[in-house]
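Incident log, structure service

09:12 report received: a user says their structure output differs between two submissions of the same chain.
09:20 pulled the input from the user's history:
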Amino acid sequence: MTVNLWVDDVKDPTLLAQYLLGENEPTVWVWARTAASARMVLFSPGTRIAHLALDNDMGEGALNDGRAIAHEILQRVLDDETYDPPMYMHCISGNPIAAREIEATFNDIAKVRMTR
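09:34 re-ran on a clean worker, output below:
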């Protein structure tokens, strides 16, 4: 099963996805409001993520923010050659420092993907 995953505790993908990501982006999203629910979708066997839209602050503390999730994806890519990371990854955080870190991690994931 292929899905588009929107990870944000506040921003509604039905209202903001096309505004934040552009008019050619998907309009149907699975909305994960917590890091735990995002992990369930991201790392569920048989689930393929086409688009991932990732916020940083989900109100759950540093271990459950968007940076931690991005790093977990990177770690999976490095440790498990069978893991297929999201095809397209978008940072939707308004926090400029967190956004830079998430984007840097997304770039690292893309680099590892290219070496496979």
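09:41 both user submissions now match this output. Likely a transient worker issue. Closing.
09:42 reviewer note: Residues 2-115 form a domain with the Rossmann fold fold (CATH 3.40.50). The helical segments are 13-21, 35-42, 66-79, 96-115.
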